[in-house]
Structure formats: C-alpha cells, structure tokens
Amino acid sequence: MKKLFSLISVLFCCSAFADSATPLPTPRISLFSTTVDWQGVTGLSLSQYTGYFTGGDRSLLKDGLVLYYLDSFPCYGEADSVRVWISPKGETVGNLRLVCIHNPTEVNFAWRNAPKDAEQSETTGLLTCPVSGDYELKIDLSKCRKGPDWSDYKK
Description:
By secondary structure, the chain is of the alpha+beta class. About 15% of the residues lie in helices and about 35% in strands. It is built from three helices and ten strands, in the order ααβαβββββββββ. It has helices at about 1-15, 40, 60; strands at about 45-55, 65-70, 75, 85, 90-95, 95-100, 105-115, 125-130, 135-140, 145-150. The longest helix is centred in the first third of the chain and has 15 residues, at about 1-15. It is globular and about 55 Å long.
C-alpha cells in the first residue's frame, strides 16, 4: 500500500512540474460543401447539363489537356464526370456533366498538359472558359483564359 501511495504521489508531483508551454494542437480544417442543398437554399430546381468542347490552340492542347471541373455557383460537377482529357487534335475522352440551378455563363477548370494515359498528378493552374447553349453547354477552348498558376497564389 505504501508503494502505491508513493507512486501516486510521484505522478502527482511530476504532473505539477510538467511544461505548461506545450503548444496547442493545430486545429483541423473542415470542408463543408454548400452544393449539397443549393436547391433548398435557393428554392430553384436543379437540372443536368452536359459540356462539349471545341476549338483550342496548339499551345493549350500540346500533347493533351487534362481538365478537372471546379465547382462554383450555379453548378457543381457530378462526381464521375468532372475529368476530361482533350487530345492535341481536339478529341475528347471523358464527360463533363454538371448539376446547375440555371445555365452557367462560364466554368472554371484546374488544368495541366499531359498525354492520355498519364497518371494523375498536380494541375498547373486555373482555366476560365465562357460557355454557351442550354442544357448542352458549348465550351470553346480558344476563348478560355488562363488564370494564375497555383504557385502564384499566396498563403
């Protein structure tokens, strides 16, 4: 019994001398998507839109162009249809399907140049493209604007 009491006393004393300057843990960032209930938030009905690509110059297409749709109001991408590869000749592999509360006037992509079967890796930057059409959205790559590269963004 004396040994148990001694052990508890030692532990109590050690905790009293513990370093109180221990840094607090970094809070975790939690991402919450508001796209889940845009219909409920806006009172507008959701509809499906399909994107089709045309145009494009050789400097953008190079050995192939990989596009990842970036969700933004009034649309979000369907999970299995937000990555598209476009060949140097303009042939498209993959689908772009969006769910929107109204026709978008422009869409944003993360992009990078890569051949068709390249493994997924970091993208280069932002590509903003005007769109036309109703439920079949026409995206003319020759009218897209390159935004800053990711390395240009400040923390």
